[in-house]
Amino acid sequence: MVPSKKLSLILFFACSIFVQETLAEVICESLPTNLCSFAIASSGKRCVLENYQNEQGNLDYTCKTSEVVVERLSGYIETDHCVSACGVDRKSVGISSDAFLSSEFTARLCSPACYQNCPNIVDLNFNLAAGEGVFLPALCEKQRVNPRRAMLALLSNGGGAAPGLVAVDSSAFAPASAPTPF
């Protein structure tokens, strides 16, 4: 990436965070459910969408604050552009590493539109991948060079993925100690 373009992206990202933080405090429990997933409260804790059975016996949704802290993105609500570019769904309840088994999901996550512009979604998936023994920057490089080989590496025991990918409840998700690729 050209240094001036990279600097422009960094400045844009910094300004967008500043504007969000100066306009209003983000409180997960106050967010509408269609903005909950991929939001981070002003406290720095991730927001999670949870479902419950309402008084009429129907399935309903609420936004809650998790215990997972994101250090650099407090008060951040992911843009619709990033949700679309990264191929994620705001109606997701919990998260699962099974998404990495979809070559379409991995291709969208690793695309420049997502990987270089959507730090919250990338950070969440970086940590999820790390929990499965996969280094997301290496997976994305393999995806860029040879998508079929990336999937083979992910599926093989020697490719950095833990055998038997499992579903993870997002409220129990802890960030990896490795720094994100930004």
Plain-language structure description:
The chain is α+β, with helices and mostly antiparallel strands and 182 residues long. The protein has a domain at 78-168. 42% of the residues lie in helices and 15% in strands. It has helices at residues 3-23, 33-36, 80-86, 103-110, 112-115, 119-131, 136-145, 147-155; strands at residues 39-40, 45-53, 59-69, 76-77, 95-96, 167-168. The strands form three sheets. Strands 1-4 form a two-stranded antiparallel ribbon. Strands 2-3 form a two-stranded antiparallel ribbon. A hairpin with a 5-residue loop joins β2 (45-53) and β3. α4 packs across α7 and α7 packs antiparallel against α8 (147-155). The longest helix is centred in the N-terminal third of the chain and has 21 residues, at 3-23. The radius of gyration is 17 Å and the shape is globular. Mean pLDDT is 77; it is low at 18-22 and 157-182. It comes from Handroanthus impetiginosus. It holds the Pfam family PAR1. Residues 1-24 form the signal peptide. This is PAR1 protein. Keywords: Signal.
